[in-house]
Description:
Layout: E1 5-13, H1 20-36, E2 39-48, H2 61-71, E3 78-80, H3 93-111, H4 118-132, H5 141-149, E4 158-165, H6 166-170, H7 180-190, E5 192-195, H8 202-208, H9 210-214, E6 219-222, H10 232-240, H11 251-260, H12 269-272, H13 286-290, H14 321-325, H15 327-331, H16 349-362
Parallel strand pairs: 1-2, 1-4, 2-3, 4-5, 5-6
Amino acid sequence: MATPTKVVLLACGSYSPVTNMHLRMFELAKDTLNKTGRYSVIGGIMSPVSDGYGKKGLVSAKHRCAMLKNALKTSDWIRLDTWECEQPSWTETAKVLSHHLSMLEKSCKVNTKPAPTKKRRKDLHNESINEDEIDRGLESPNSYNTRLSSGVSNKENVMVKLLCGGDLLESFGTPGLWKEEDIEDIVSNHGLVCITRAGSDPRKFIYESDILSKYQENIFIVTEWIENDISATKIRRAIRRGESVKYLIQDPVIDYIKEHGLYGVSNNKYINDFLKSPADDPTIFSDFVDAPLHVDLPDVTRQPVSNPRTYMEDSDAPRSPKRQLSSDHYDDCPRSPKSPRNVPCMTDIGTLVRRVRNYNLSRGIPHQKMDHL
């Protein structure tokens, strides 16, 4: 069996802000390519566009890169690359792909050089220690490319495939947006991994495009069965309208947006009035946690209670509407302590007869008139 081709996934975009769906795309693509047996995904790169792109709602690259760094702290194979956003103007996607491919190829050639001297090995050891101390989201491009190419021999091919959503693939058909030579360069020399989105049909679009149909073997369509229609546009709209965006973007990204007041977050109560959990701040709820547990229970030891379920103080006993209407007269009626008025039901007819007789006696009715009872 042939050795799987090493692949690095590259995703270009605004990332204003980066969403969970942006990150989820990498996991979906990696699983799909690895299952084919033809490819082995060894890394992922997120490349934000330059400020010169001029898209509406686009905050500065400084903020977008910072949010990406925070979002990628939990990933051990995806990193941020700032080469594209450092360019003075917008850079075509085909050029970004070529740049990263050439960087990887150079790293592979460096790794195939003869073994270094003893002094050089010591220097490399110190460099590796310093690299391990770098935060994953802040790893430098050179160290990242070296780490990726370390497991690639000079006889193996390394590919950089463009990772995108169905909307980007369909944008190939927008007149004047893409150069035909760039489209052909992307699908023929690199390849595409397209994640489906609700409302888009990439297979139909490929069929209707002559260029895409010609190189359709280099296009992988990944169906997202767990539909997730998160977009940066919807995130910005929700923040402006004061709606919660928790679980749609990473918590460190939310914290950064709040700290720097991005996307009109000053009016968002869900972010600005956010209450930290006790795990984040042990001083919160300390009074409640440290307070002794005290519950006032009735003293039922003074007299035996045959049925605890029916025990209740006279003042708290529930009354029916009829009893409530005659409560003034009823409160003056004598009653046996053994027969509380809040007993839910009568056990026999004798109990009923005795209660009626006692009630009539309290009203002055002669005993003879009750003989029939």
